[in-house]
Write a structure and sequence with these properties.
Elements: H1 3-6, E1 28-30, E2 36-43, E3 47-54, E4 60-63, H2 69-78, E5 84-86, H3 92-95, H4 98-105, E6 108-112, E7 122-126, E8 131-134, E9 137-143, E10 152-156, E11 161-165, E12 168-169, E13 172-173, H5 181-192, E14 199-202, H6 207-217, H7 222-236, E15 244-245, H8 246-252, H9 261-266, H10 275-280, H11 286-299
Pathway: Secondary metabolite metabolism; methylglyoxal degradation; (R)-lactate from methylglyoxal: step 2/2
Keywords: Hydrolase, Metal-binding, Zinc
Family: Belongs to the metallo-beta-lactamase superfamily. Glyoxalase II family.
Length: 300
């Protein structure tokens, strides 16, 4: 894909209220083709929660509230109540605000049946391929294990948005803590099957560091070069890099390009390895990433 064509659609940027991310001012991004408003709420050091507001019904939800206070502040600014809490998985940095928010607003907590004993305050269990209505908006539940065994993603087809938690990041994917490379590959392919213009809302602001690794193993990818420069510009101004477009990730994210000859060569992955075997050879932690960079530098 031509890098200029890839970047011809302006990347959305937004400002968010965060102590650590230092984003200047809270505001929302709205999909103008639907009545679903999506507002980013930075939490902790690098987490993102997302407030959802169905303008037509007044339904309000939050995705993955790692802490309660920033969410309460955001709701108070808009004078809104909270109807639902949706969790992609059970980790504390995605559920830490559940119980306080539930107690304050009477919100219902939603999560995977696999995690029914691990998500604090869970009320509603949703499983793979189930459809659920958030106000007037259909939500498709996608089982996306790999990072954890109970991980799900929430896809809003009418708004072209998926909340992928820690399954897919911009230019990377989640660490395999409870799953296998085969499971993660299957999960990533589910997301890749969505329309190219789908907006991906992930759980963390990792894109700048991810871009450095991606460039280290795919340095001649012109689309990646352009996107990495865009990411560096945003972060230099303390602006978020999320949401990202699926078409951008398909062109730039090395974890979605496991068949790439150049990437396999950089990581010493045999050409005969299948895609799940290749994915299993990718660095999965900062330590592995640094070791890979050291190895690459000695080979150049």
């Amino acid at each position: 894909m031509d890098s200029c064509a890839l970047l011809s659609t302006p990347f959305k940027t937004l400002r968010g209220a965060s102590r650590t991310l230092k984003v200047a001012q809270f505001c929302s991004i709205s999909n103008m083709s639907s009545s679903l408003q999506i507002e980013m709420v930075p939490c902790l050091n690098d987490n993102y929660a997302y407030l959802l507001h169905d303008v037509d019904t007044g339904t309000v939800g939050v995705i993955d509230p790692s802490e309660a206070t920033p969410v309460i502040d955001a709701l108070s600014r808009k004078n809104r109540n909270l109807t639902y809490i949706l969790n992609t998985h059970h980790h504390h940095d995605h559920t830490g605000g559940n119980e306080e928010l539930k107690a304050r607003y009477g919100a219902k907590v939603i999560g995977s049946g696999v995690d029914r004993d691990r998500i604090p305050g869970i009320d509603i269990v949703l499983n793979d391929k189930e459809k659920w209505m958030f106000g007037g908006h259909e939500v498709q539940v996608m089982e996306t294990p790999g990072h954890t065994r109970g991980h799900v993603s929430f896809y809003f087809p009418g708004s072209g948005a998926i909340f992928a938690g820690d399954t897919l990041f911009s230019l990377s994917c989640g660490r395999l803590l409870e799953g296998t490379p085969e499971q993660m590959l299957s999960s990533l392919r589910k997301i890749m099957s969505l329309p190219d213009d789908t907006n991906i809302y992930c759980g963390h602001e990792y894109t700048l560091s991810n871009s450095k690794f991606a460039l280290s193993i795919d340095p001649n990818n012109e689309a990646l070069q352009s996107y990495a420069a865009h990411v560096a510009h945003l972060r230099s101004k303390s602006l978020p890099t999320i949401p990202t477009k699926l078409k951008v990730e398909k062109a730039c994210n090395p974890f979605l390009r496991t068949s790439s000859t150049a990437i396999r060569h950089a990581l010493n992955i045999p050409a005969t390895a299948n895609d799940s075997e290749a994915l299993g050879r990718y660095p999965a932690s900062e330590g592995q990433f640094l070791r890979s960079l050291a190895r690459l530098s000695t080979c150049q």
